Amino acid sequence: KQEVTQIPAALSVPEGENLVLNCSFTDSAIYNLQWFRQDPGKGLTSLLLIQSSQREQTSGRLNASLDKSSGRSTLYIAASQPGDSATYLCAVRSNQAGTALIFGKGTTLSVSS
Amino acid sequence: NAGVTQTPKFRILKIGQSMTLQCTQDMNHNYMYWYRQDPGMGLKLIYYSVGAGITDKGEVPNGYNVSRSTTEDFPLRLELAAPSQTSVYFCAILTSGSNTGELFFGEGSRLTVL
Q1: Assuming Cys at both sites, which of A32, A36, A48, B48 could form a disulfide with A44, CB separation 3.0 to 4.6 Å?
Q2: A99 and B90: CB-CB below 8 Å?
Q3: Mapped to the 3 state alphabet, what secondary structure does B16-39 carry?
Q4: What would the pLDDT profile of A3-46 be if each residue is shown by its tens digit?
């Protein structure tokens, strides 16, 4: 059974710092991996999608990497801003459960000005 | 939200009452999902559907039922509401291919059972 773990559960950084969020998964037979952002009381916004054949994806100040063989992904945020404060969720898709996403519990990021 | 509409946005139920959470998509996608999110617990899959007339259980299906009579609609029904079903419910669709597609979520339905 696929399990997804995100470490740390919470992170506080000063504005301008570069940071890395970690995601690990137990079964490397995945189709793809998605990173989401969730603001308090809101829905999920898709940030990046990495297919199993890819090593990384970039969008603006965000860069996500995937090492399928070791079961790890990282989300790198450059030059963090207070507006980046949110919970970041990692999820993987495989051939389980109608190819549904299996989620980690998230990392709550707080960026202070 | 990629054309995924959830209603209602908020609802308070009494124990034992029934209700249906609606999810509608306007993009003719086959794969649809219902998740629930509890504080600090990530999202857990309740039910999913790979096309009209086809549904299956996810990780936490007890206390819920679904139907998929059309491609557009995937309602989630709570028959006898319990306090443990207090949660935020999200409907999602899978775009493009079943292996390479991306999941997009509705804005959620916040349910409180008292």
Answers
A1: A36
A2: no
A3: CCCEEEEEEECCCCCCEEEEEECC
A4: 999 999 999 999 999 999 999 999 999 999 999 999 998 999 99
